[in-house]
Design a protein that fits this description.
Number of helices: 7
Structural class: mainly alpha
Largest sheet: none
Helix content: over 70%
Distance between the termini: 81 Å
Strand content: under 5%
Length: 163
């Protein structure tokens, strides 16, 4: 039996012939990113409640899990539509997006730095879009405007609620 030279197209064809494996491998970065979201965002949501002794850590984690799931099921589609408009997507780019955003969140968490998972996702999508030659900069501008106005709105709401 002679040596076989497999080129990139042959490898892709070989992989795509096994659709279930491809879908599983594409799903794993999303699971990883979901784990980093739980690690990062649960602390953002219930950190002060746990540290002040109002809730125990396990209770806060369970409540947070249910709240995040309910929010995603009931109102997550709007954000997904906005993000999907940033650039074109394939199964590979969606997996790379989840992996890159997850790595970014994990590394910043490990350094003890505050991190926005939304900003990690948008940054990843912009990077992919730049490489693929298409970013909708109007959508990016709208998202950046939200990054500026959201903390200001939260500060005003907190001021009004605490006073």
């Amino acid at each position: 039996m002679g040596e076989q030279n497999l080129n990139f197209d042959a490898i892709i064809l070989l992989i795509t012939d096994h659709e279930g494996i491809v879908l599983l491998l594409a799903f794993l970065p999303a699971v990883f990113f979901g784990w980093t979201l739980g690690r990062n965002d649960a602390a953002n949501i219930y950190g002060t409640t746990v540290t002040s002794g109002i809730l125990k850590y396990r209770s806060a984690a369970l409540i947070s899990s249910f709240a995040v799931l309910a929010g995603a099921m009931l109102g997550g589609a709007g954000g997904m539509e906005t993000l999907s408009g940033l650039s074109s997507h394939t199964l590979l780019s969606a997996s790379v997006n989840a992996a890159a955003a997850g790595i970014s969140v994990l590394l910043l968490n490990r350094l003890g730095l505050p991190v926005s998972s939304s900003q990690a996702v948008v940054g990843s999508l912009i990077g992919i879009g730049l490489l693929k030659g298409g970013v909708d900069w109007l959508i990016v501008l709208k998202i950046v405007a939200c990054w500026i106005t959201t903390p200001l709105g939260a500060a005003i709401a907190a001021f009004l609620l605490i006073d």
